[in-house]
Amino acid sequence: MRVGVVGVGCSKFGVRDVTLQEIAFEAVIEALKDANLSQEEIDLSVVGCVGTRSYELMPTVVINEYCGFSGKGPLGVEAACATGSAAVYTAYSSIKSGISDISIVIGVEKMTEVDTAVSAAIGGRAGNYLWEHHFYGTTFPAYYAMHATAHMARFGTTEKQMALVAVKAHRNAAKNPKAHFQKEITVEEVLSSKVIAYPLKLYDCSPISDGASAAVLASEKAVKDYGLDAVWFESIGFSSDTSNMTMRENFFSLRATRIAAEMAYKGAKISDPLRSFDFATVHDCFTIAEIIAYEDLGFCKKGKGGEFIEKGESDFGGKIPVNTFGGLKARGHPLAATGVAMVYEIVKQLREEAGKLQVDLKHYRALTHNIGGTGHFSWVFIFGR
Amino acid sequence: MIVESRELKLKNRIPVTRIAKYWEGLKEGKVFKTVCKCGMSYYPPKADCVCGNQTEWVEIVGEGIVESFTVVHSIPACFEWGGVYRIVIAKFEDVRVMGWSEEDVKIGERVSILTKKDASGIWKVWFEKR
Lengths: 385, 130
Known about the structure:
The structure holds two protein chains of two kinds.
Chain A: E1 3-10, H1 20-35, E2 44-48, H2 60-66, E3 75-77, H3 83-96, E4 102-109, H4 116-123, H5 129-136, H6 140-155, H7 159-173, H8 187-191, E5 195-197, E6 200-201, E7 211-219, H9 220-226, E8 231-240, H10 255-267, E9 279-281, H11 287-296, H12 305-310, H13 327-331, H14 335-350, E10 365-372, E11 377-384
Parallel strand pairs in A: 2-3, 2-4, 9-10
Antiparallel strand pairs in A: 1-7, 1-8, 4-7, 5-6, 8-11, 10-11
Helix pairs in contact in A: 1-2, 3-14, 7-11
Chain B: H1 20-27, E1 32-35, E2 41-42, E3 56-59, E4 63-72, E5 85-92, E6 95-101, E7 110-117, E8 123-129
Parallel strand pairs in B: 6-8
Antiparallel strand pairs in B: 1-2, 1-3, 4-5, 4-7, 5-6, 7-8
């Protein structure tokens, strides 16, 4: 029995003057209307929210009530920045196992209710608090900066190559009305922006954004019974790694992504990703993360990620357009919303509803790659239509 | 319109009794890892090996090789008592250790391990070039 995505919704990402539950509802009502269903037909709601920066500390039931799903669950899911994908997997599993026919996934985050220094202190705990942040003041940019310096030292990757990832992201986001950033930037602007954690500068980092995304998932039987239009799950891969960064095998690759990709590719019988997908959404919370993702997902050889962006291979018209809606880097990265927003992008593109950002479809197949923390969790979903 | 939430001061009392030797070691200039007779080594140290045995303490000595570093300019709350700081990860035989360094270390350079209080009064690991 196949499982499909039959409706998607996404709020405007950015600094938003609304509560967690209000922004969640923006995505939910769009997804329900998109599926031509109402709350009544939903068997199970899955709410993904990291929630550490917003005023509701146990937000699952608050979001669920506001969106009209009281009694339909909810299942609360948390897996750092991969919360959205873990929530999608939870809803998928309930349908695959026959427990529910139609489920909704809500990924939502309000990140702008606290100031930047507090946000940095919370994000810096997305590793192992006692052994890292407590002693050494790790921040989330610092974690990825340590991957950047390792990648630069080993492969000669440059700050300019990283800047090109930001330039591409902003160029795409400028055509996406739901993106946090609506303006194109230049390599020079990235390189001269203030240092956050060397070698990462302000424009190498995803912004602090509010946002929500929702997706309605249905069984093949429900798709037929209700006459729904589905984008199908073809394969799923997942893995994880140590909470302590010091316990990793190296700092220039994420083992969890390599394992998740291998599992997903095997499930969908994919041997050459560049000849199998029309586009991809990858986890670019920082520019270096996208370069490492190209390599770990097998789009290019290890160490060649910098050249891959330089040659335009991940741009429209390249070998595999990546992050066509602006990515985490410029669309925004409201933690739990991200994994579900990736599904939103996949569905819009595969249905050829992406407007100015539409990619040419040949395979009618694409992937999402969502990391939690600094490779603590990794999810790869393959979708087809 | 904005309503301010009531203020909540969040400070945990962390029980480190089973690994107290680590903190005692820091005050004596020693950095300890734990090892198990099954062959596993742990840094950060832990009292329980995944095999179910209790681990034993071993001091980390000698020179380490720098594998990664960053300099933090955007300072998180709780660290606003100091200026920019350099976080370094160095490998010492079978474990990697995180610490601070006042020197501009490069990846591949050799460092020695020491302990020192930071300006907030916390004993921790520092690295110096050999």
